[in-house]
Input
Amino acid sequence: MALMTRTVDYAHANTRCEGFLAYDGCSATPKPGVLIAPTWAGRDDFAIGKARQLAELGYVALALDMYGEARVGNGPEECAHLMGGLMADRRHLQARITAALAALRQQPEVSPGRIAAMGFCFGGLCVLDLARSGADLRGVVSFHGLLTAPEHQEKRPIKPKVLVLHGFDDPMARPEQAVALGHELTEGKADWQLHLYGNTAHAFTNPRANAPDLGTVYESAADHRSWRSLLDFLAEVLE
Output
C-alpha cells in the first residue's frame, strides 16, 4: 500500500473546517469510510494518528475539525472553552459533525454507502449525537465518551449500529449514565452494545493521560481490548 494524506476543506455556519484524510493511494476501488471525532483538544496528532492507523487497515479515514481552521486547544482551560461553545447548542454541534460526514461521503476514494463514525471523549458524544440526529450511516463507536443526551431533542429512530467502549471508573460519565444511554438506545430501536472496562477511568486510550486526580489515566489492557472491539465492529458494519 501507499499511505496518502491530504487536507479536506469544508464549511459549516461560516466556519471553515480542515479535515485530515488518510487512505491507500494504491487502491482504485472506493473503500469504506470512517469519520473520526477528536477529543476536546481538537484535530490534534492523536486524531491524525488514528486516521493513519485505519488507512493502513484499508479504510478511508477523515479526522474531522470541530472548531474550524484546524484549531487545537492549548491546555484544559482553552479546550473546555472550545468544547463549551458547541455543547451549549447541541443542534449546532450536530450540524457541524453532519457537515464533516457529508465531506467524507463526497471524497472519490470513499464508498458513500459504507461509512461509520468513531470518537474519543468529547468526540464520543459527537458521534452519539450524530446517531441521535437521525444520520444515515452504518455504525458509530464512542471511546470513553460523554454520554448525556441533548435536552428537548425530538426522539428519532437511531439508524446506525452503536458500540460504546467505556471505563467503569470514568468520573465524567459514570455507570448510571451508561445505563441511561442503554435505555435511550433501546427506545430508539438501535442495535447497540456497551462494553464497560473494570478499573478503567477516562481517556484510557491515550498513552499521555496520567492525571489520576482528574480521572484521566491510560489503561493499556482497555486500550488494546477496545481497539480490537472497534475493528471487529467495523468489519461487521462496513464489509
Notes: The longest strand covers residues 110-120.
